[in-house]
Amino acid sequence: MQDFQLSLDTIFRRAEQYYSDKTVYTGGPAPTLTTYGEWAERTRRLGGVLDTLGVSSDGRVGTFAWNSGRHLELYFAAPCTGRVLHTLNIRLFPDQVVYIANHAEDEVVFVDRSLLGLFLPLLDRLPLVRYVVVMDDLPAGAPGVEIPVDDRFHDYEELLAAASPVEFHVQDENQAAAMCYTSGTTGNPKGVVYSHRSTWLHSIGVLTNAAIGLAETDTVMPVVPMFHANAWGLAHAAPMAGASLVFPGPDMSPKGILKLLQEREVTLTAGVPTIWQGLLPLLDGVDLPKLRRIPCGGSAVPKALSEAFRAKLGIPILQAWGMTETSPVATASHVPARYADIPEDEQADLRARQGLPLPGVEVRIVEPGSITPLPWNDEATGELQVRGPWIAAEYYRPDDGAELNTEDGWMKTGDVAAIDQFGSVRLVDRTKDLVKSGGEWISSVELENLLMGHPAIKEAAVIGVPHPKWDERPLACVVLEEGSTVTGEEILAYLEPLVAKWWLPDAVEFIEEVPKTSVGKFSKKDLRTRFADYHLG
Ligand code: ADP
């Protein structure tokens, strides 16, 4: 067979040649609509801009931006000219953004105008950033942060208008295409570098029906941010498939999302569970006849949430599991044909699992601290480890020298899981979120899923709090649906028949809101800090 390089310029050319009439829509206060044909021409010009700005041949190109058509231009112009796209997470703490941009040695940062207010205060601490290119996503004349008059600042559209389109040709599929830092639930964020090859293969993986299964006939709306974990590969997979794209731009509100789903006739949309939780109350009496699939992951998808979508829209949520380190999609949870005839409620239990690895990815669970595989009987639990062509082998220059892989080449995920006889993964918890009671582990995820099945409970997070006898005991932190009244005793009585006695939380605390991380996941770290001195009893 030919030795053909799996590089992103081949995806780019495919969209340019075969799907030039398909569209890319960006919402927000200044919506734009382009075709892949126009996008391709602009992306080639953007390659010219990077040359004119003198960005090194393998230099890091930072982005500080919402999901948008311009961001998609950067997604291809940087890697297809040999540079490395570095998506900065706009929701991280300022110190972390500064750390990441300096660690990656970003030479230029492309910033949405609506985010300038967040970005400008950081600039003095970014000595390597030679240029800031502002992408104006606000309506003409709208008030916004003024662009400083300074040689470092440029306007995106002005640069593009003055540039000439360039040819793309990437020599080596193993060269770096993009990088992303984990959102750092512990310690400093750690960088993951994706190669052209890994991104190419991940895109194919995402396209398969074993994963998200998007097709040319789809209109895809990634709500999952392009600034974290590559929008789950959708920004590469959609151009590869020739599917039209809809980007929310700066408006990520449930109302804004619903409007785009309706008006743009979106068929496939993806985001973390909190996004769909937020949309749920707006769905009464709403018909979305075109919508056919809602991939969701980043944290466990509660059965109750998926079932609520099935009840209201006729489609359950499709759960997928992955990490920044796994590109990110590694498993997806389709109900296998062998279970097609089981009752819907049991199928919903299967959908609450993380599911089968994508073609190319392999999974195992091991005894903690060892590389001894555990049996696939859905009972034994151990650290989930994965390997495959889009699984990271190491972090990018880690401060603490952290080893990501085992000595026999499997990636340590830090997640605890069981695997059933057919290989379907069921995530029990993150290692650091397990509650350790008298030497036995309690799954916070499972308790949360059950709690969120209670009609009066909107959100629930379970954390371990210190206990003199048992070391740690579970505390349920609960947010009630508006207008609901239910007592802690009633909640515990609801849980009692559903779990082993010693799993029952020792107490229930009612809180206003579960704190969220930069990408909308429950931040247990913040809850643990808040309840560090909690006294049980
Ligand atoms: P971080 O949250 O550490 O910044 P990522 O965004 O890469 O990093 O998140 C990866 C983690 O998110 C996984 O290790 C896992 O704990 C959790 N996760 C992702 N998808 C799922 C899922 N479908 N169910 C449960 N947990 C998930």
CATH superfamily of the domain at 8-263: ANL, N-terminal domain
Strand content: 15-25%
CATH architecture of the domain at 8-263, by name, is 3-Layer(aba) Sandwich
Q: Give the end-to-end Cα distance, rounded to a whole number of Å.
A: 69 Å
What would the average pLDDT be, to the nearest integer?
95
Strand order of the largest sheet: 7-6-5-3-4-8-9
Total beta strand runs: 25
Number of helices: 15
| Main sheet summary | 7 strands, mixed
Descriptive terms for the model:
AMP-bd_C_sf; binds adenosine-5'-diphosphate; five-stranded mixed β-sheet; ligase activity, forming carbon-sulfur bonds; ligase; 25 strands; globular; Rossmann fold; Long-chain fatty acid--CoA ligase
Give a quick precis of the structure:
The chain contains 15 helices and 25 strands. The chain is an alpha/beta fold. The longest helix is centred in the first third of the chain and has 17 residues, at 36-52.
Please characterize this protein's 3D structure:
Residues 13-396 form the AMP-dependent synthetase/ligase domain. Keywords: Ligase. This is Long-chain fatty acid--CoA ligase. Residues 446-521 form the AMP-binding enzyme C-terminal domain. The chain is an alpha/beta fold and 537 residues long. Among the domains are: 8-263, Rossmann fold (3-Layer(aba) Sandwich), CATH 3.40.50.12780; 435-530, GMP Synthetase, Chain A, domain 3 (2-Layer Sandwich), CATH 3.30.300. The protein is built from 15 helices and 25 strands. Strands 7-6-5-3-4-8-9 form a 7-stranded mixed beta sheet. The longest helix has 17 residues, at 36-52. Adenosine-5'-diphosphate (ADP) binds at residues 182-183, 185, 229, 297-301, 319-324, 328, 354, 413-415, 427, 430, 519, 521. Adenosine-5'-diphosphate (ADP) binds next to strand 14, strand 19 and strand 20.
